[in-house]
Structures are given as C-alpha cells and as structure tokens.
Specification:
Length: 230
C-alpha cells in the first residue's frame, strides 16, 4: 500500500515539465502582448510628432516665401529710389555741362576776336602802300601797330583786375563758382548751401550736404574755385 501511495519520479518530472511549458507559454504571450502594446504606443506618439514636424516645415516654407517676397519688394523700391536720384543728378550734371560749354564758347569767341585784331595789326607794316600814303615818315607807321597791339592786349591785362574787383561779390550767388550752374545752385540752396563760404570752408554738416552733389562734374574743384572768389 505504501508503495502505491508514492508517485513515481517520471510522473513528477513530467508534471513539472508540463507546468513549466505552460508557464513559459504564458510568459511568452505576456511578452508578445507587451511588445504589441509598445508598438501601438510608439505609433501613437510618432504620428503626432510627424504631423507637428510637417506643420513646422510648412510654416517655415510660408515664412521664407513671405520673407523673400518682402525682400524683393524692398529691393525694387530701393532700385527705383536709386534710379530716381541718379536721374536727378544726371539732369544737374547736364546743366553744369551746358554751362561749361557756354563758357568755353564765350572764351573761344574772345580769343578769336583778339587773334583777328592782332592779325590785322600785324598786316599793316611800314612798307605797305596804304601806310606810305597816310604817313610821310616811318615813325607814325611804327607807332600804329604798337598802339593796336596794346589795344589788343588790354583785355588780357584787365582780366586780373576784374578778378580782383570780383572779391566783394554777392556770396549767395553760387553760380560764380566754376562748374556750378543755375540748376545745381538751386538744388544746393534747397539742401542748405546758401553761401560760397560754405563751399570754400565747409563745416562737418556742410560736407554732408555737399556729398549729395559728388557726382556733379568738377565737384572736386568746387572748394578750390570757391576759395579763389572769397
């Protein structure tokens, strides 16, 4: 009877193995369920993150596009303003060039007149028939060319005197400075340059005002020419 009550070792081992397999399968099932839940949770987290990243990219693209459009608009406005300033300065330069051209033409006329007078005086020599009839001796014939030569050279001699007499001129007349025409003078006065002294000896503020006329032909000589007047 005692022997029958004791279970055999094989049965015990078999039962233990069955329990172990059962427990292992349960543990494996729990692990698989946990992995599935983890995958599901990971997808739930990734989807909002992906959506958020997509929205951030779209927002960045929109802002970059808006920034580029605004930059191009400002750049176009700057180019238009620059072209407008250049056109105005071009007109001022044209007026100054016309003034210089007129002065050059007047100088050519004066030089041509003086040359014609000197030539006519040189042609009347003591040996010509016209001088022989008018004068009995050579002395009067010699005096006439000298008198005419002195008359021809008088305008050249009077120029320095005219320059000296020009010192007490109206210093508010900016056109007296060589290279500054009426149009440029008007723009300078509008900018605050109302006296030749401001061009000859400009202050720091006057220098800033004069920079706006740096593209005018002969601008570098304005100060030197103005000092000659004052």
């Amino acid at each position: 009877m005692a022997k029958k009550a004791k279970p055999s070792v094989d049965k015990i081992v078999k039962k233990v193995n069955q329990e172990f397999e059962k427990t292992s399968s349960q543990i494996e099932g729990l692990v698989n369920d946990a992995l599935k839940q983890f995958d599901s949770l990971q997808q739930q987290v990734q989807d909002p993150v992906r959506k958020l990243l997509k929205e951030v990219d779209e927002l960045r693209d929109r802002e970059m596009k808006r920034f580029n459009e605004e930059f191009e608009r400002r750049l176009n406005e700057f180019h238009e303003l620059q072209n407008s300033i250049l056109e105005r300065l071009g007109v001022a330069s044209k007026d100054a060039a016309e003034d210089v051209k007129k002065q050059a033409e007047q100088a050519k006329k004066q030089a041509k007149s003086a040359t014609s007078k000197a030539t006519s005086a040189a042609m009347k020599t003591p040996g010509s028939k016209s001088t022989a009839k008018k004068s009995a001796t050579k002395k009067p014939a010699a005096k006439k060319p000298a008198a005419k030569k002195s008359a021809a050279t008088k305008p050249a001699a009077k120029k320095p005197a005219a320059n000296k007499a020009a010192k007490p001129v109206n210093k508010s007349d900016l056109t007296l400075v060589k290279g500054i025409g009426p149009a440029t003078a008007k723009k300078m006065k509008d900018a605050g340059i109302t006296s030749i002294d401001q061009i000859a000896n400009p202050s720091a503020a006057d220098q800033e005002k004069l920079k706006a006329f740096s593209s005018v032909k002969g601008f570098a000589q304005f100060s030197t020419e103005a000092k000659k007047i004052i």
